[in-house]
Amino acid sequence: MYAVIEQGGKQYKVEQGDIINIELTEAAPDAKTIDLDKVLFVSDGQNIQVGTPYLDGAKVVATFRVNAEQAVVKGPKLYPAYHRRRKNSSKRVGHRQKYLQVVIDSIELPTGSSSE
Questions:
Q1: Domain range enclosing 21
Q2: Is the residue at 116 inside a domain?
Q3: Is residue 114 part of a domain?
């Protein structure tokens, strides 16, 4: 079974046991799990459910690999460059994005779903 979720303006295809890096969100320092309730699509091999835009009642439960404060990981260092032609002016700026690293525990379907 897999699902497509939306988190932080990006879409992720997730299965149980996957480790993904999501956009940094507010979480309690002692939190162990996070519920991702913006589920766009769920498939279990035979049955497919598509939301308009989200599936009501469906959610993906994910846990932090360590506690919420230490689950923050850094992405790759990026160097965008600004250059003005014929002005002898250029600038190089560094940026490094922070992410939350989570493990997908379960994909929960709505209670009244037809997944027989």
A1: 2-108
A2: no
A3: no
**Domain-embedded: residue 78:** yes
Closest CA to 2 of 43, 53, 48: 43
Angle in degrees, CA 112, 9, 66, rounded to 5: 80
pTM of the model: 0.79
Q: Please check the confidence at residue 115 and state whether its pLDDT lies above 70.
A: no
**Rounded Cα gap, residues 25 and 10, in angstroms:** 13
